[in-house]
Amino acid sequence: MAVLNVEDLHTYFKTEHGIVPSVNGVSFEVKEGETLAIVGESGSGKSVTSLSIMGLIDAPGKVEKGSILFEGSDLTKIGKKEYRKLRGNEIAMIFQEPLTSLNPLFTIGNQLSESIKLHQKVDKKTARVKSVEMLRHVGIPRAEKVFNSYPHTLSGGMRQRVMIAMALSCNPKLLIADEPTTALDVTIQAQILELMKKLAKEHSTAILLITHDLGVVAEMADKVVVMYAGQVVEYTDVYTLFSNPKHPYTKGLLNSTPKFHEIEEELESIKGTVPTPTNMPKGCKFNPRCPFAMDVCTMNEPALNETSYDHKVRCWLYEEKEAVI
Ligand code: SF4
Ligand code: MG
């Protein structure tokens, strides 16, 4: 069974220019022990999708339509209090900058053992022992010393390890990681991703990973959702996405990712920018940037279709019948 099943999610923001649909009909599922990555440029709606799932969209934003089934119950129907209980218990989160998620006034040990005491219902002494164990488990050397340290005295990589320890201390079913390694240098980034992967496997945690980085996707994901302008444009498993990308936007992203290129080859970046929600092009939202755009693309919007088994694509190139209308 899917741990998380997002169905036709619409998240809108009210602005002075009118209603802005940041997420416009997004669907996907994440199974136990599986990592699904949502990839896209900034402004694609990927972070708004994750915030919607976490119940962190506040006015003027609103989850307008659709369902978010977590272990079968619809999160769009629960109250703020219930949501708060769910976050940090069943659903854990890791963000880009751990300094802002850790309280600067308390030691690492204080914060970690408070979390363990609360979620695992153990006494203070046991929570302390478990905290130090947990710090070792996430690869922190001199765990005893770090236990007594304040967040600002640690490096970014160490703080992110602490955040992973915090996130996993409540044995979550789902871990949402929004650009978890973007602020870190490449070597540390690889270590943190490796660690997340290892721990998630050990605990069969489902991971929803939000990233703009296809290198991170290749490293971590089982399934991939490519988002563009608030919609899913391609959805398949990670092997298929890299070996047989279909959507022109996905191809563009791959062509602009250095990891997948010979050094001599010149990288192409995708021309143009993501359209703003108040200024969406007619037809396919990618048409102003697409090298394959046809007449139909500027008039009608393509649907997300299953072009082959478990491979969905939103593009007229794969919808011959309708494209000739
Ligand atoms: Fe390009 Fe047309 Fe496909 Fe859009 S529908 S991605 S414009 S070919
Ligand atoms: Mg973001």
From TrEMBL:
Subcellular location(s) of the protein: Cell membrane
SMART domains on file: AAA (SM00382)
Record bears the keyword Acyltransferase: no
InterPro entries assigned: AAA+_ATPase, ABC_Ni/Peptide_Import, ABC_transporter-like_ATP-bd, ABC_transporter-like_CS, Oligopep_ABC_C, P-loop_NTPase
CDD domains named among the record's database cross-references: ABC_NikE_OppD_transporters (cd03257)
ATP-binding keyword on record: yes
Sequence intervals crossing the membrane: none
Domain ABC transporter: 4-254
Domain of life (superkingdom): Bacteria
SUPFAM superfamilies: P-loop containing nucleoside triphosphate hydrolases (SSF52540)
UniProt keyword annotations, A-Z: ATP-binding, Cell membrane, Membrane, Nucleotide-binding, Transport
Main location (coarse class): membrane
Membrane topology: Peripheral membrane protein
Molecular function in Gene Ontology: ATP binding
NCBIfam families attached to this UniProt entry: oligo_HPY
Family, per entry: Belongs to the ABC transporter superfamily.
Protein name (record): ABC transporter ATP-binding protein
Native organism: Sporosarcina highlanderae
